[in-house]
Inverse folding.
């Protein structure tokens, strides 16, 4: 105290300093407390931001992945070639058809299937397609004509592949129209399928007839699916006839002719699909080239293959509203591989590659010119529409 007095401090002044120091200490403690709270709060926020960023990154990753998996507008055929699944040998798959109704069953009789078959595809009357109609009355007329005009002694089975549900009256009227065995085979279980990976929900077709994708399904059916059906495996030759087409005049037994001439295809007249009508149809050439390269295939029919490649804006086809085909062709491994390539390229759904040009290319790849017979050269008449 004496010393402080000596150096000029009074006791009151000392107390004042201490109070000031206490205030400072308390302020400092408050400040540190606030800093601590703020740091904790910041840590919480950083944690939340990190979680949000990680979630965002995960979402972005899956989004990019999903985009990558979407059908590509231009099919990368080289990548296709490298795909591991491509190297697996193929086998004919035989999908069991769940609903078959046959005339034999109707008359409660047993009869062996014929060697060959005449196949139709129709849409049963339904209200959920744009142009709903009942195809069976007209089909009945077609079957009657076949009995009259085709010289096969009315022994060839008829298969009516159909979607939906024919009325009982439609079935009975058909089975009484023809002397042949008739089988009604429901194909709902396959008809509405798409090529693997194709998303019909987010895409619009370049071509629509009846329903949005119906025409594409029809092409897919006649190009590939029909040959995978179990019921088809028992037959040797298949004649396809559309319900809007007909045979005219007297036809000989075309199945006998094709067998005798050791042919594998009976062709209708040549037509073309123009790229400006069917955008993307010419892209089928890329797939064909990649396929030939991969399997080192020299086309068995160079003229037909040249026809595929020599016209810039068009792809040729045989108008296969009517055709006769040796089913053993479609059972060959390399032919099945080609069909699978087409399927996996998704070209049928992306570009509406028709079954007719695809069949033409199949023939160009695997069938000699001498193995193809032509209706016009045989003098066989045909009508469409009729
Ligand atoms: N079940 C079913 N059958 C169909 C459908 N579209 C076509 N078809 C049948 O498939 C066959 C071929 O169909 P079309 O409409 O004649 O097609 P296209 O032959 O390419 O066309 P055109 O050359 O004009 O005759 C016909 O017998 C049709 O009845 C469909 O959406 N569902
Ligand atoms: Mg037709």
């Amino acid at each position: 105290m004496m010393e402080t007095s000596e150096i000029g401090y009074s006791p009151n002044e000392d107390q004042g300093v201490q109070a000031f120091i206490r205030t400072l200490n308390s302020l400092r403690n408050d400040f540190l407390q606030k800093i601590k709270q703020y740091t904790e709060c910041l840590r919480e926020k950083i944690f939340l931001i990190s979680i949000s960023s990680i979630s965002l990154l995960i979402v972005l990753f899956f989004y990019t992945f999903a985009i990558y998996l979407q059908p590509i507008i231009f099919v990368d055929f080289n990548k296709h070639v490298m795909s591991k699944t491509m190297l697996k040998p193929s086998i004919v798959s035989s999908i069991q058809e769940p609903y078959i109704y046959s005339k034999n069953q109707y008359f409660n009789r047993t009869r062996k299937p014929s060697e060959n078959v005449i196949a139709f595809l129709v849409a049963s009357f339904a209200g959920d397609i744009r142009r709903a109609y009942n195809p069976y009355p007209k089909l009945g007329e077609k079957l009657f004509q076949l009995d009259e005009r085709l010289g096969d002694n009315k022994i060839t089975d008829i298969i009516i592949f159909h979607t939906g549900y024919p009325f009982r009256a439609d079935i009975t009227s058909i089975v009484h129209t023809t002397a042949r065995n008739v089988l009604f085979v429901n194909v709902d279980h396959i008809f509405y399928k798409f090529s693997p990976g194709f998303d019909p929900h987010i895409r619009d077709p370049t071509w629509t007839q009846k329903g949005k994708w119906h025409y594409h399904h029809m092409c897919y059916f006649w190009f590939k699916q029909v040959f995978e059906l179990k019921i088809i495996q028992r037959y040797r030759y298949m004649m396809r006839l559309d319900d809007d087409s007909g045979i005219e005049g007297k036809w000989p037994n075309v199945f006998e002719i094709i067998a005798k001439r050791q042919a594998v295809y009976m062709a209708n007249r040549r037509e073309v699909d123009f790229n400006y009508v069917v955008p993307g149809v010419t892209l089928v050439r890329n797939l064909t080239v990649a396929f030939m390269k991969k399997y080192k295939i020299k086309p068995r029919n160079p003229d037909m293959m040249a026809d595929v490649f020599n016209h810039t804006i068009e792809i040729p086809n045989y108008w296969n509203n009517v055709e006769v085909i040796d089913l053993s062709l479609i059972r060959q491994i390399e032919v099945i591989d080609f069909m699978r390539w087409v399927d996996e390229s998704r070209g049928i759904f992306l570009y509406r590659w028709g079954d007719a040009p695809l069949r033409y290319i199949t023939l160009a790849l695997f069938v000699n010119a001498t193995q193809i017979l032509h209706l016009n050269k045989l003098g066989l008449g045909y009508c469409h529409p009729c």
About this structure: The longest helix spans residues 11-69. The two ends are 130 Å apart (CA to CA). The CA atoms of residues 53 and 59 lie 10 Å apart.
